[in-house]
Recover the amino acids of this structure.
Protein backbone atom coordinates (compact mmCIF):
# COMPACT_ATOMS: atom_id res chain seq x y z
CA UNK A 1 0.00 0.00 0.00
CA UNK A 2 1.41 3.39 -0.98
CA UNK A 3 1.97 6.18 1.49
CA UNK A 4 -0.64 8.27 -0.33
CA UNK A 5 -3.21 5.47 -0.14
CA UNK A 6 -2.60 4.95 3.58
CA UNK A 7 -2.96 8.69 4.15
CA UNK A 8 -6.29 8.70 2.24
CA UNK A 9 -7.69 5.83 4.32
CA UNK A 10 -6.67 7.56 7.57
CA UNK A 11 -8.14 10.77 6.20
CA UNK A 12 -11.49 9.08 5.46
CA UNK A 13 -11.66 7.71 9.01
CA UNK A 14 -10.96 11.19 10.41
CA UNK A 15 -13.52 12.70 8.04
CA UNK A 16 -16.27 10.30 9.16
CA UNK A 17 -15.83 11.71 12.66
CA UNK A 18 -16.09 15.28 11.37
CA UNK A 19 -19.04 14.93 8.96
CA UNK A 20 -21.51 12.34 10.29
CA UNK A 21 -23.55 12.33 7.05
CA UNK A 22 -20.85 10.47 5.16
CA UNK A 23 -21.01 7.47 7.51
CA UNK A 24 -24.47 6.82 6.01
CA UNK A 25 -23.49 7.14 2.34
CA UNK A 26 -21.94 3.69 1.94
CA UNK A 27 -18.48 4.98 1.09
CA UNK A 28 -15.75 2.52 0.16
CA UNK A 29 -12.07 3.10 0.85
CA UNK A 30 -10.76 5.99 -1.23
CA UNK A 31 -8.20 5.56 -3.99
CA UNK A 32 -5.53 8.26 -3.89
CA UNK A 33 -2.14 8.47 -5.59
CA UNK A 34 -1.11 12.05 -4.79
CA UNK A 35 -2.55 13.36 -8.07
CA UNK A 36 -6.02 11.86 -8.34
CA UNK A 37 -8.67 10.88 -5.81
CA UNK A 38 -11.63 8.53 -6.20
CA UNK A 39 -14.43 8.23 -3.64
CA UNK A 40 -16.94 5.44 -4.25
CA UNK A 41 -20.44 5.09 -2.81
CA UNK A 42 -23.15 2.44 -2.83
CA UNK A 43 -26.44 3.26 -4.53
CA UNK A 44 -28.69 1.76 -1.82
CA UNK A 45 -28.23 4.46 0.87
CA UNK A 46 -28.29 7.20 -1.78
CA UNK A 47 -31.40 6.21 -3.72
CA UNK A 48 -34.30 8.54 -4.50
CA UNK A 49 -38.01 7.87 -4.99
CA UNK A 50 -37.37 6.79 -8.61
CA UNK A 51 -34.84 4.13 -7.65
CA UNK A 52 -31.91 6.14 -9.04
CA UNK A 53 -29.12 8.09 -7.35
CA UNK A 54 -30.43 11.05 -5.32
CA UNK A 55 -29.10 14.28 -6.82
CA UNK A 56 -28.18 15.60 -3.38
CA UNK A 57 -26.03 12.54 -2.71
CA UNK A 58 -24.27 12.90 -6.04
CA UNK A 59 -23.61 16.59 -5.31
CA UNK A 60 -22.41 15.74 -1.79
CA UNK A 61 -19.97 13.10 -2.99
CA UNK A 62 -18.62 15.35 -5.75
CA UNK A 63 -18.22 18.33 -3.39
CA UNK A 64 -16.57 16.11 -0.79
CA UNK A 65 -14.18 14.62 -3.35
CA UNK A 66 -12.94 18.07 -4.39
CA UNK A 67 -12.69 19.25 -0.80
CA UNK A 68 -10.74 16.13 0.18
CA UNK A 69 -8.39 16.52 -2.81
CA UNK A 70 -7.49 20.09 -1.82
CA UNK A 71 -7.12 19.11 1.86
CA UNK A 72 -4.91 16.10 1.06
CA UNK A 73 -2.77 18.16 -1.34
CA UNK A 74 -2.23 20.86 1.29
CA UNK A 75 -1.35 18.26 3.92
CA UNK A 76 1.25 16.84 1.49
CA UNK A 77 2.70 20.36 1.38
CA UNK A 78 2.90 20.38 5.21
CA UNK A 79 0.06 22.90 5.54
CA UNK A 80 -2.76 22.91 8.07
CA UNK A 81 -5.65 24.78 6.44
CA UNK A 82 -9.38 25.20 6.55
CA UNK A 83 -10.82 24.33 3.13
CA UNK A 84 -14.25 25.40 1.89
CA UNK A 85 -16.09 25.25 -1.37
CA UNK A 86 -16.65 28.81 -2.60
CA UNK A 87 -18.90 28.07 -5.54
CA UNK A 88 -19.75 25.25 -7.89
CA UNK A 89 -21.68 24.40 -10.99
CA UNK A 90 -23.34 21.00 -11.32
CA UNK A 91 -24.47 19.32 -14.51
CA UNK A 92 -26.62 16.22 -14.25
CA UNK A 93 -26.10 14.22 -17.44
CA UNK A 94 -27.76 10.85 -16.83
CA UNK A 95 -29.44 8.90 -14.02
CA UNK A 96 -27.32 6.74 -11.73
CA UNK A 97 -28.73 3.22 -11.44
CA UNK A 98 -25.92 1.48 -9.54
CA UNK A 99 -22.96 2.12 -7.30
CA UNK A 100 -21.08 5.26 -8.33
CA UNK A 101 -17.86 7.14 -7.74
CA UNK A 102 -16.49 10.67 -7.74
CA UNK A 103 -13.15 11.27 -9.44
CA UNK A 104 -10.95 14.36 -9.48
CA UNK A 105 -7.39 15.20 -10.41
CA UNK A 106 -5.12 18.03 -9.37
CA UNK A 107 -4.82 20.74 -12.02
CA UNK A 108 -1.67 21.45 -14.02
CA UNK A 109 1.50 22.37 -12.10
CA UNK A 110 1.31 26.05 -13.11
CA UNK A 111 -2.09 26.38 -11.40
CA UNK A 112 -0.79 24.56 -8.31
CA UNK A 113 2.23 26.90 -8.22
CA UNK A 114 -0.06 29.95 -8.35
CA UNK A 115 -2.22 28.47 -5.57
CA UNK A 116 0.80 27.86 -3.32
CA UNK A 117 2.18 31.32 -4.13
CA UNK A 118 -1.07 32.88 -2.87
CA UNK A 119 -0.96 30.65 0.21
CA UNK A 120 2.60 31.84 0.90
CA UNK A 121 1.92 35.54 0.36
CA UNK A 122 -1.65 35.95 1.63
CA UNK A 123 -2.29 32.90 3.84
CA UNK A 124 -5.15 31.92 1.55
CA UNK A 125 -5.66 30.68 -1.98
CA UNK A 126 -8.22 29.35 -4.43
CA UNK A 127 -8.04 26.17 -6.47
CA UNK A 128 -10.46 25.21 -9.23
CA UNK A 129 -11.27 21.53 -9.64
CA UNK A 130 -13.42 19.46 -11.93
CA UNK A 131 -15.07 16.38 -10.44
CA UNK A 132 -16.94 13.67 -12.32
CA UNK A 133 -19.55 11.32 -10.92
CA UNK A 134 -19.29 8.08 -12.86
CA UNK A 135 -21.20 4.86 -12.96
CA UNK A 136 -18.88 2.44 -14.71
CA UNK A 137 -17.34 4.39 -17.60
CA UNK A 138 -20.35 6.68 -17.99
CA UNK A 139 -20.17 10.24 -16.65
CA UNK A 140 -23.47 10.92 -14.88
CA UNK A 141 -22.72 14.33 -13.34
CA UNK A 142 -19.97 16.94 -13.33
CA UNK A 143 -19.01 19.53 -10.75
CA UNK A 144 -16.81 22.50 -11.54
CA UNK A 145 -15.88 24.07 -8.23
CA UNK A 146 -13.70 26.71 -6.67
CA UNK A 147 -12.25 25.69 -3.33
CA UNK A 148 -10.71 28.20 -0.94
CA UNK A 149 -8.03 27.35 1.60
CA UNK A 150 -7.11 29.52 4.58
CA UNK A 151 -4.09 28.93 6.82
CA UNK A 152 -5.09 28.16 10.40
Amino acid sequence: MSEHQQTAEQFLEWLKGQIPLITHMGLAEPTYDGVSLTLSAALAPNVNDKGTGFGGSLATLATLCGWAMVTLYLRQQGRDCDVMIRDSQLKYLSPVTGDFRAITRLPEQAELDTFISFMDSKGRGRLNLDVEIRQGDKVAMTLSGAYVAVER
